[in-house]
Amino acid sequence: MQVNKGYAEIKSEIKQALKEHFDDRIGSFSVFGQTDTPYTMFSMQFKMYDYFFVILNYDRGAFGCAIVNGELGIGLPNSQEWYDEAHMITFCKELQKQLELRIPDKFLEYKGWK
């Protein structure tokens, strides 16, 4: 499933949705591996909750996140698998739930996020 948008536009839309939802819980974005030829794909890494880094991969319409753990990632389940069909509010809520399950409540409370 290919969305008829280039990586720059898709990246901007995703980044805006994440910033709107997570506000001060997200920061330091880094984009790499971006291309529109022969198909659209990119990776975006960002800091979440001052606790860990998350990578979002987009490849030919499919997208998802993983917690960065060295050279490997810990995949985060999400019901929104295809960007052109995704409801970004649902995507962000599910990402938030998966991340907060892995962060101690004391840390979230201290930062005012719980």
Order of helices and strands: HEEEEEHH
Tell the overall outline: globular
Number of contiguous helices: 3
Low-confidence stretches: none
Beta-strand level of the residues, as a percent range?
25-35%
Largest sheet: 5 strands, antiparallel
Could you say which structural class the secondary elements and strand pairing correspond to? alpha+beta
Q: Cα-atom Rg, whole angstroms?
A: 14 Å
The tally of beta strands, per DSSP, is 5
Tell me the span between the first and last alpha carbons: 37 Å
Helix content: 25-40%
Mean pLDDT: 92
Any overview of this molecule?
- The protein is α+β, with helices and mostly antiparallel strands and 114 residues long.
- The protein has helices at residues 7-22, 88-100, 105-111, and strands at residues 26-35, 41-48, 52-59, 62-69, 72-76.
- It has one domain.
- The chain is built from three helices and five strands, in the order αβββββαα.
- The protein has a five-stranded antiparallel β-sheet with strand order 1-2-3-4-5, with helices on one face.
- The longest helix has 16 residues, at 7-22.
- The radius of gyration is 14 Å and the shape is globular.
- The model has no long low-confidence stretch (mean pLDDT 92).
Question: How are the secondary structure elements laid out?
Answer:
Layout: H1 7-22, E1 26-35, E2 41-48, E3 52-59, E4 62-69, E5 72-76, H2 88-100, H3 105-111
Helix pairs in contact: 1-2
Descriptive labels:
single chain; 114 residues; alpha+beta; 5-stranded antiparallel β-sheet; 5 strands; 34% strand
